[in-house]
Design goal:
- This protein is an alpha/beta fold and about 450 residues long.
- Helices cover about 35% and strands about 25% of the residues.
- A ten-stranded mixed beta sheet has the order 8-7-9-6-10-11-12-13-14-15, with helices on both faces. A six-stranded mixed beta sheet has the order 16-17-21-18-19-20, sandwiched between helices. The protein has a five-stranded parallel beta sheet with strand order 3-2-1-4-5, sandwiched between helices.
- Helix 5 crosses helix 8.
């Protein structure tokens, strides 16, 4: 499909992180862009601020009669009125992944995958390129704080940086020139059924790149047998030798084939993000970006919204928000909190994401959450799913080895103000982010500005 002929685009699920980047991509090319999402969000505000019309009620009437292309996300249920109408009446109806395939096929494609860390790695490598004035088109699965956006769109770009999503096997549509895999823990079992099936999809993804262009975290390289590896594992070719914090900034020593490379005073928090930086470094060196260029860029790196996002901090307390929704991500988050705030009491508010994920990882979630000093749960965020009998936040709460309660979002600030904890963290991939600013304002009222 030749996208240059597209003049009118409608996106169903336009507020999704990947969909909103596509909406902006077409808007930047002079297309008339509109779309539907079920509720306002940070991404829909980015779109409406640019003059893109967003509807929050399903209606076939929203789709322009002369629309050239309808794009939808697989997270949209098949019962959606607009999607049903489009599939029956519109010639060009494509999934988000199909459109990304068309865009990236025209460029040198760098695809970054993994059950954890891919958004941070994508944002880091995109920032390194952008800072050093290397033209790229980058689709990031989160809001880069440096950009206040999830898209870099340089029309001179011959390189596409794509966050490759494994949900619905979307990443298999890409044809990466360089493929990176950061983690391959079991996830999306509603799609893959088994961990083995998911691994097979990852293997198919990475094998699309030439052997010398496959980059893998050494911790999961047993599945891929790549020659170019990174991480803290002793076997890694690009290995994290050590790191320590000074004035809340990281000093990192990497070992590259026996040679030490030092990076000083980088704003990177937690071991998992040190590994993410190691991944971005490995990829940047593959693209012949120098150590000095990488360090200078990373000293100005501000991170990603909802990835160890320090919302409020003073001498008494800190409030962090994080997108973690898988047991391994929660473990990484908790370890990072212990590194950055050693010896502090931590109170966590977790919103489980998906009934199926809660069912599949019930015991693992309970085990990780029980390691916090104080825990509250919100009801499960269903996203695209209908309830599953016997699966609820109350069932998860009963498995946690503390007096864990299920509360409403409106009660979170009350619990924070009543707690004697030093560090508070909201966790989850659902709509828990809607209360971030409410919490921040209450803390400012109580303690003054950061």
């Amino acid at each position: 499909m030749d996208l240059s002929y597209i003049k009118s685009v409608y996106l169903i699920g336009i507020g999704g992180i990947g969909m909103s980047a596509l909406a902006q991509y077409f808007h930047n090319r002079g297309c008339r862009v509109a779309g539907y999402d079920r509720s306002p969000s940070i991404t829909t505000k980015i779109l409406t601020d640019k003059g893109i019309e967003v509807f929050f009620i399903e209606s076939m009437a929203h789709i322009p009669s002369d629309v050239d292309l309808v794009i939808y996300t697989p997270a949209i249920p098949s019962t959606n009125i607009e999607l049903s109408f489009a599939k029956k009446n519109i010639e060009n109806v494509l999934k988000r992944s199909e459109v990304l395939q068309i865009i990236s096929d025209e460029k040198f494609c760098i695809a970054i995958a993994g059950t954890h860390g891919k958004t941070t790695i994508t944002s880091m490598i995109s920032h390194i390129f952008n800072y050093n004035n290397i033209p790229v088109t980058a689709f990031i699965g989160g809001i880069s704080k440096n950009l206040s956006n999830n898209l870099i769109d340089n029309e001179k770009a011959k390189i596409a940086i794509i966050e490759a999503d494994e949900f619905d096997r979307s990443f298999l549509r890409l044809s990466p020139d360089i493929a990176l895999v950061n983690a391959a823990d079991a996830d999306h079992l509603d799609v893959y059924n088994t961990h083995e099936s998911m691994i097979a999809a990852y293997q198919e993804f990475i094998n699309k790149a030439k052997k010398e262009n496959r980059i893998v975290n050494a911790d999961c390289n047993k599945y891929f047998n790549a020659e170019m590896t990174f991480g803290a594992n002793e076997s890694a070719k690009y290995r994290i030798e050590s790191y320590y914090y000074e004035n809340n900034l990281a000093n990192i020593v990497l070992n590259i084939d026996g040679k030490q490379v030092n990076f000083n005073q980088l704003p990177i928090f937690g071991k998992h993000n040190i590994e993410n930086f190691c991944a971005a470094y490995t990829l940047a060196r593959k693209m012949n970006i120098s150590d000095e260029q990488i360090e200078n860029a990373m000293r100005t790196y501000e991170g990603v919204v909802r990835r160890f996002d320090i919302i409020f901090k003073n001498n008494d307390i800190a409030y962090i928000d994080d997108y973690a929704h898988h047991p391994a991500e929660i473990a990484s988050l908790r370890n990072a909190l212990a590194e950055v705030f050693p010896g502090k009491k931590v109170c966590a508010f977790f919103q489980p994401h998906l009934y199926s994920r809660t069912r599949d990882f019930m015991d693992e979630l309970a085990a990780e959450l029980s390691k916090f000093d104080e825990v509250y749960l919100l009801d499960i965020y269903p996203a695209r799913e209908l309830p599953i009998e016997g699966i609820s936040s109350k069932v998860l709460a009963d498995k946690i080895s503390k007096n864990t309660k299920v509360i409403d979002k409106a009660e979170v600030t009350e619990k924070i103000l009543a707690s004697d904890a030093n560090v508070f963290v909201t966790i989850g991939a659902g709509d828990i982010d809607q209360i971030i600013n409410v919490i921040k304002e209450k803390l400012i009222d109580e303690y003054g500005k950061n």
